[in-house]
Amino acid sequence: MPPERHDRPADPGHPTDPATFPRRTALAAGIPAAAAVLGMTAMTAPRPAGLGEPQGDQEITSALAEHLRGHRTVSVVLLDPDAEPRFAGFGADPQRRFEIGSVSKTFTGALLADAVDRGEVTYETTVADVLGSQAAGSDIADVSLAELASHTAGIPSVATRWLPRAFASSFLRHDPYSARGAEQVIADALAVSPTGRGEMSYSNHGVALEGQLVAKAAGKPYEQLLAERVAEPLGLTSTYAPILPENLHQDAQRGHTRAGLRAAPWTMNGAAPAGGIWSTGADMALYVLAVMDGSGPGGDFSRHLLHEGPDGGRSVAVNWMHDPIDERDPTIWHNGMTGGYAAFVGWHEGTGRGIVMLSDTARSLDAIALKVLTGAVEL
Fold first, then answer.
1. Contact at 8 Å (CB) between 278 and 97?
2. Whose CA is closest to 179, among 249, 236, 105, 243?
3. How far apart are the first and last CA of the chain?
4. Beta-bridge mates of residue 218
5. What is the pLDDT of residues 336-361, one digit of tens each?
6. 10, exposed or middle or buried, with CB in 10 Å at 0-12, 13-18, 19+?
7. pTM
8. Distances (CA, A) of 251 to 4, 6, 39, 153, 339
9. What is the DSSP letter of 230?
10. Cα angle at 240 between 239 and 246, to 5 degrees?
């Protein structure tokens, strides 16, 4: 789920050094989760993974199979200009639901941009503007929504006092974010003393706070806001934030750790804006196309830069990463990873080619997705 170094499985997502792009940046749900999964992997004999039966577009499945070793169930959608989306899968059709991890952050960005369009907030709205006296005396009272949406607020990825519990939960392959509701996420953020403010440092906690502040400004819970302002307008019939395990759809399935062990679903409770959404290949195709052409909620928010990287490196729009894969046009993207799932969505601005990749195994999809976008793998 984060862009915090998540080329490991269990932090909703995070980007790496722009100089090494294409990079493995598993946007997962949190560093503790990632570390725990790595620990579990090291202590457990690997379970051989069998890639599911190929379905859909045969050209895509033939080209990608060799790059997906270690994965099991995978859904792929290729988006080309002036062409219908091309669906392919391994053991999955376009309606199979996956945890999308930190790709959820882009939905939170859409909600923020939409709230700006509605006049409920601005990008310069601060924590104190939304919370009022509740933020009195907090070191983050003057942090803006723009800073939260660009990972420049100086807020750590995971609340320090929750690290031991998160580590233990991850080690047991449980959801490390489940114990904190929306109000606790806010309270923990208010107790933070920012470090490195103004510099990009991927933060799950920061985006969780962003989502909860937008929800407060709108006067509705995050999951309701997601449904009413993004999912329903775009016809995303299978996209939702369960928040709690009891709200999971009946078809929800456990994913797999990198070692092949079954992992409990991540619903993430109050941290859901950073990585708790479930979706399908079909829904994500509709969503990414609407973001690409600016026709969805929030308009052209994926191109509204909030932080420009030094020396032409990675920049950050409203919860979307921009990387200079070539000298002319950026790739706009986000990845995700939970305890048992991985995801990647993005497109190249020059060619207009986009891709959606979803897997039920916590192994990065970044490398192969970027090869498709740059043409290194031809489809």
1. yes
2. 243
3. 27
4. none
5. 999 999 999 999 999 999 999 999 99
6. buried
7. 0.89
8. 30, 27, 29, 38, 18
9. I
10. 135
